[in-house]
Amino acid sequence: MFRAVGVPGEDAELAADVLVRSDERGIDSHGVARLPTYVTALQRGATNAAPKVEVVHETPSTATVDGDNGLGLVVGPTANRIAMRKAAEVGSGWVAVRRSNHFGIAGWYVLEAVSRDLIGWSMTNATGIVAPLGGATPRIGTNPIAVGIPSGEEPPFVLDMATSAVAHGKMEIAMRAGTAVPDGWAIDAEGRSTTDPAAVLLGGALVPLGGDHAHGGHKGYGLAGVVDLLCGPLSGAAWGPFTPNFTVVDRPPHDPHGDGIGHFFGAMRVDGFGPLAEIKARVDDWIRTMRSSPPLAGEEVLVAGDPERVAEADRRVHGIPLVGDVVAGLRAVGDRVGVAFG
Description:
Layout: H1 9-24, H2 35-43, E1 54-58, E2 62-66, H3 72-90, E3 92-100, H4 106-114, E4 118-124, E5 145-149, E6 157-161, H5 168-177, E7 186-187, E8 193-194, H6 198-201, E9 205-206, H7 217-231, E10 261-269, H8 276-291, H9 306-318, H10 324-337
Helix pairs in contact: 1-3, 2-10
């Protein structure tokens, strides 16, 4: 489908890999369910199918990349490769990105780094759908952040999280299923807590990780601010409430508060801190120590990345389940671009 709307072959394969890997890892909100929106944006010219992604400023360990309004699924991996290359050359690499679009799951990028014995960092800002702590209207994005740390015999530590109480994709899943969401995830247009996922789209907002003051909402709000500042003002991308909405496919090409969605990638050589095998063995020890903690009744002690790893192992054998609405959407967009579903 990407090729059918003008995305060059290798870029199309890369974009498809990012989406399918998301579904494999159980993050259904960011997988092929989003394909119709990507395709529509490409068809309407709101996203550049064949961008010229280029470095516009750099030092040996840092760079700013202009994504030329390309697919984030292509711009992101390109910038991430630059960060990893710089890390291989000088020990660490840090890349800020502007004029990009939605880049899939943040975890995809750190998995690429981990596979090269690098500590990976990945983050992106997003449209302002989260209320600032104490606020009643949306001003900042869910702004996910991912960190990957290589291990030895154990699976790597892979944190991939939104800085809001919940990723917006989970609200979309609830809306498709027609189910309520837990209390404490969102507020309605009047600033009242709500369990109706549709209320967010009707003038409401998600809340920061932690929720209110009493439950540590300042921590999630602060993390969201860090991500927004590194992805937006640092690169020249839009930020806060000015960040383009992923679901709007006819957005203007320029905003005085910055251009497009912004990302930030980092990579650090593990052996820049000591012998590689020794450090990876110590990470193994840390992981085993956490997992050996006596669990609460009915609970299991996990390490970041465990749920996604379990989902991936299962889905690679038994396949990826898709709900009816997603299948219908794929069939419809396939018919539109002349790609048979099957």
